[in-house]
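Hey,
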Amino acid sequence: MNATTDRPTTAPRADTVSRPAAAPRGHRPDLVTGEDGLARCAWATSDAEYQRYHDEEWGVPLREDRGLFEKICLEGFQAGLSWRTILLRRPAFREVFHGFDVERVAAMDERDVERLLQDATIIRHRGKIEATIANARATLTLQQPLHELVWSFAPAARPAGNPGSMAEIPAVTSESTALSRRLRANGYRFVGPTTMYALMQSSGLVDDHIAGCWRAAATASVGGGALGRR
């Protein structure tokens, strides 16, 4: 997720999530305590699927090529849409793109593109479908595993720790810009700097759980975020 308002990310981008009702006095507006007694980033409390995603996936370090390839492609599909839309369609995306097996996706052709443009279970956008195939082909040409390339752009941990509010979370960073530039040079599409910061958030290169969120502590306990170095 990118938690800023200038974007349509893995967390969901803040402009695509309904804000919860005003918090009672004494509560931080960007941190909400649920009925289970756990404090969470406020964006995760607007929807059950967001909460599951926040609790189980967002910010957990991912160093596996297929998983990162899937996230790169789905982040691209999200452009202009809510992340919830992508999450609900993720099983269908996985089915039509062969579980995001890079070699199988790279082998898809124009006939597959035309077929997918008729498939209402996914996002029927020619450019994004073609980008997924192009990204698979680009992945096959890399001189290093995809996860090594992506994690080589992980920033150093913040000296001050997790952000204290959504306002402290950037939309783009020098590292996400550099990653975007590198991927584009290798033939990837729909990998702009903002989208790549969303990838960094969702894949644990950075930990943007709000300070006090139970996931911030849990992610830190498994070595989350900022482990890679350029």
